[in-house]
Each structure stands twice: as structure tokens, then as C-alpha cells.
Design goal:
Layout lengths: L3 E4 L7 E2 L10 E4 L14 H11 L7 E3 L4 H8 L8 E2 L3 E2 L4 H6 L14 E3 L1 E2 L3 H7 L5 E3 L2 H4 L2 H4 L5 E5 L3 E3 L4 E2 L2 E2 L2 E2 L6 H10 L4 E5 L11 E2 L17 E4 L2 E4 L5 H10 L3 H15 L9
Parallel strand pairs: 1-3, 2-9, 4-5, 4-10, 6-8, 7-9, 10-15, 11-16, 15-17
Antiparallel strand pairs: 11-12, 13-14, 17-18
Amino acid sequence: HTVIAQVNKNVPRAFGDAMFPASMIDYFVEHDESLYIHNNSALSDLEKKIGYNVAQLVEDGACLQMGIGGIPNAVLAELGNHKNLGVHTEMFSDGILPLVEKGVVNGSQKQIDKGKMVASFLMGSQALYDFIDDNPMVAMMDVAHTNGIHVIRKNKKVTAINSALSVDLTGQVCADSIGTTHYSGVGGQIDFIRGASHSEGGKPIIAMPSVTSKGVSKITPTLMEGAGVVTTRANMHWLVTEYGAVNLYGKTLQERARQIIKVAHPDHREMLDRAAFERFGSHYYFVSK
């Protein structure tokens, strides 16, 4: 095989699997191009509420996994008084930088890659790329390492924070399609949901707004026809919206429905309660609220 590598002076020099001998490359092609820049938007009140609710589940010494966007940044903004957090994630963005500067994120409690922030890719501002450059605190690793369940579970208190497009009353999570319309890739959600569930003291979390921007409930009696199940109800633990957080793990389907309705938007709770009754029958009302 012939290996050709592009050399771009704008790409930060990273440690981890990004380090390899030049002898592995047959040809180098110089082509300097600007990196994609993603600057954070101001957090909405909705995102702040969800971020606060998620942050209440994060313990000191936890090892974080989260992605990019308003909700992950809102969670990070609430962690300023935490201690000794670690990072083992598929990717991270600018929201983590203030916590590093404060010493909140230091990786001191990690069981593997101690003292290092581990990821497989990044997207953010120029400040983020500058932070990565020649920084031994960051290890950019092959996705087989970052997303391997057998690797993730080795750290204690893995707190995996992922989002969803919709969740049904039994806890099935759709994160990649709206009905039959493909919306996004599944990413590493199920890797980290399962990895966190196997981690000692771990917390797999699905966090999302209770309704869409048009007021449609994202918590539904059943998933839309053709919707993809990314996280199965068997793997579901914590569900968080702006109305609170509920733990579904080990619950019966009837108990799950009761809990999920608690964090649904008030405008839709009656509809969801009626749908649960129609699905589970009269004994649904004997389940503890």
C-alpha cells in the first residue's frame, strides 16, 4: 500500500495515536487550508434548565462524555464547583476549556489515561485548536479506543450525556431519524450509553427538550413509524428534560411510563397518560406515581 499524507500548518499537533513515525508515510502533500470554526452561541433559558438538571447527576471524580451544542455546553457551565473531573469522549468542544483553566477537569481520578483528556475528533473555535496544539494533557486516540465499551467501562463514574430526537413511553430512544426521514448518524451514543452502564458508578443520560421548537412533544406514546431505535429501552437509564430527571433502569413498562410523563411538557401529559392507560390497561393506574 502507498500512504499519502496531507500536511497542513493549521492543524494542531496532537499527542496520542496522532503521533506516528514519518517513515510510515510514502508521500507528503503540502496544502494549507483553514480549519472549520464553530463558535458557541449564547445559551437559551431552556438549555440552561436542562444543563442544570443534568449537572445535578454529575458527581465529583466523574469521567465525562458529551458532544457539541447547547445542552452539553449548558451542562459544562454548571460544573464550575465540581472537583477532579475527567474526560473520555468521542469529541469535545470549547465548553470544556473553562473547566480545565479552573482545574475542575484534571483527570486525576481516571483509572486509564490518567491525567489526560481523551477524544477522537474535535470541532470548535480557534482557541480550542490552539489549546490542543502540543498539549500533552490531550490524547487524540483511534475511535476503537475512545468508543470501545471494554475501554470506556474501565473508568469509574463514567457519565455519558447524549441527546435524542424523541423518546417513547417505554424508554426507546430515537436519535437518527424523524419517522423514515434520515436526520443524522447515530454517532457513539450506544457505545457510551452501554459503556457508562458497565462503569462502576456510571450514569448513562439522555438529555433533550420536552418539546420541539413548534411545541410538538418529543416524548411520544410510540415512536413514529420508520423511526430508528438507537438506544433500546433495555439500555436506558436516565432521561432528563427541563422538567427534571428520572431513572428508568430496572422499571416495568408501566413504571417507566409514569416516570417519563413526569418530565414531559405539562401541555402533553394528559395525552400521554391516556395513551399509557390505553396501552397497559386499568392496572396502569395501580402503579405508584
